[in-house]
Design a protein that fits this description.
Elements lengths: L2 E5 L5 E5 L4 H10 L6 E5 L5 H13 L2 E5 L2 E5 L7 E2 L1 H4 L9 H8 L1 E5 L12 H9 L3 E5 L2 E5 L7 E3 L5 H12 L4 E5 L5 H12 L3 E3 L5 E5 L10 E2 L4 H13 L3 E5 L7 H9 L3 E4 L4 E4 L9 E2 L11 H8 L5 E5 L8 H8 L3 E5 L2 E5 L8 E3 L3 H13 L3 E5 L2 H6 L3 H6 L4 E5 L3
Parallel strand pairs: 2-15, 3-14, 6-7, 10-11, 18-19, 22-23
Antiparallel strand pairs: 1-23, 1-24, 3-5, 4-5, 7-9, 8-9, 11-13, 12-13, 15-17, 16-17, 19-21, 20-21
Helix pairs in contact: 1-2, 1-7, 4-6, 5-6, 6-7, 8-10, 8-12, 10-12, 11-12
Bound molecules: ligand EPZ.
């Protein structure tokens, strides 16, 4: 397992090219199952999770090819309607094939994703929606089996906004007979991106990005034609956090600031300056950040995927900040590692209190999940001395060439290959 060796405290200045969004690319790749033919996708990031989705689609019978951000998929000869455990356990987003498979083929067997480091991650709302659309759902030996001669339109109200639940059911509804209404739907930009891609395939979708989405089912869809996914707002936010924590001056090229309103507002409150320039969004961190509180909520609130990175910033801020994670029940795995670097953090009743300190000290630390590993990168870059971040395969799941991009802005980062 590879590690990252980071020598902290260096001034960070320069440009970063933001890659395509992992959480937009994954559902768009699954949407290719909705119809046969040759699909082409653009601005697909070079990530482990993308490779895993490609492996899963190939296992089903698709022809998958990835070349420098461009993906081609041929899905006319899908033979297996199944997502096996050994693939799903490494990437929960594999559950996104469930809706398209039932919609197009009338059956699907998908391994239950199981929990992960940040929480139990159930999919009961995905299954509730498919049942309302007429699917017969059975659970057996860790697999979900869904059967339906043809899905029918239904009104589905989610107990809470679920991103992949909204995506799964939006895709299933595209080929259902009649109209489906999703209420209390997730509003993330990745939902809008998927809806735009489905509309380009001929789907009739209205209201994506709002809490109520209407989908009028059609009989057939066209293959995806050169659809470019949106830039990754969490990669963008992560580099904002790096500039903020390290008093850096970094210009983020090809990003969408409008996808990060709540994050930018909070960062400005903490003393970070933003300038929209011709090259991109310039982010200038202050000599020292001011402590601010956050509470994670569904989009357009402060995103849970930025909580760990923001906490890392607050460990060296002036003052005390309070972080409340409301989306996942166990998303504080980064706290113990930050404390090894000298951070002063305590957790009581699901709320983290961070008392800012002048400087962190480099240390050997361990990544536990994707965004926790990003948080450790932020901390290691602003710490005094050297850190070694172990198990960075977590980082490689969601960040495209992070070490190269960091060296591009002056960071001293070296990837240590495991023997
Ligand atoms: C998506 O996960 C993202 N993943 C996550 O990003 C992100 O953290 C999360 O949305 C929240 O924004 C992808 O898009 C591939 P949810 P998802 O369903 O869809 C509960 C990353 O870092 N829930 O929106 O799995 C659930 O337990 C990843 O890139 C149910 O109870 O999350 C959670 O408390 C990590 N039953 C809440 O809803 C269900 O059937 C929101 O989860 C579904 C969800």
């Amino acid at each position: 397992m590879d590690s990252l060796k980071i020598k902290g405290g260096r001034p960070l200045k320069g440009d970063v090219e933001i890659s395509g969004a992992k959480n937009a690319a994954l559902p768009v790749m699954a949407a290719a199952l909705l119809t046969g033919g040759a699909h082409s996708l653009k601005r697909i990031p070079n990530l482990r999770d993308i490779a895993t989705m490609g492996k899963l689609l190939s296992y089903m019978g698709a022809e998958y090819h990835y070349d420098q951000g461009a993906v081609t998929l041929e899905t006319s000869r899908i033979k297996k309607h199944e997502a096996p455990y050994d693939l799903v356990k490494t990437m929960r987003a594999a559950v996104l094939v469930l809706g398209p498979l039932v919609a197009r083929f009338g059956n699907a067997s998908v391994s239950l994703p199981g929990g992960c480091a940040i929480g139990a991650r159930p999919i009961n709302l995905h299954l509730m929606g498919l049942e309302k659309m007429g699917a017969r759902i059975t659970l057996e030996s860790g697999y979900v089996h869904a059967r339906a001669s043809r899905l029918k339109g239904a009104t589905i109200c989610f107990d809470m906004p679920t991103v992949t639940g909204t995506e799964n059911l939006m895709m299933a509804a595209c080929l259902a007979k009649g109209t489906t209404v999703l209420e209390n739907a997730a509003r993330e930009p990745e939902i809008v991106d998927l809806a735009d891609c489905l509309a380009a395939m001929g789907a009739k979708i209205y209201g994506a990005g709002e809490s109520t989405i209407e989908i009028q089912g059609v009989d057939e869809l066209r293959p995806i034609a050169a659809y470019a996914v949106i830039p990754d707002r969490i990669e963008t936010g992560t580099f904002m956090a790096i500039a903020a924590a390290c008093a850096g001056d970094v210009t983020l090229k090809g990003c969408r600031p409008d996808h990060l309103d709540s994050v930018i507002m909070k960062f400005k409150d903490a003393g970070v300056a933003f300038h929209e320039t011709k090259k991109g969004l310039r982010v200038v961190g202050p000599r020292r950040l001011t402590a601010r509180d956050i509470k994670t909520t569904p989009y357009p609130g402060f995103p849970t995927d930025m909580q760990a990175q923001f906490m890392a910033m607050m460990t060296v801020a002036l003052g005390t900040s309070v972080v409340k994670e409301t989306i996942f029940e166990n998303r504080y795995m980064h706290v113990a590692e930050l404390k090894r670097m000298g951070a002063d953090i305590s957790i009581e009743g699901g709320i983290a209190t961070i008392r800012g300190t002048e400087k962190l000290k480099g240390a050997p630390i361990m990544a536990t999940d994707l965004r926790a590993s990003a948080s450790l990168v932020v901390a290691a870059l602003c710490a005094r001395g050297e850190s070694i971040i172990h198990r960075i395969y977590h980082l490689d799941r969601g960040y495209d060439h992070m070490d190269e991009k960091l060296r591009g802005i002056g960071a001293q980062v070296e990837r240590i290959k495991s023997s």
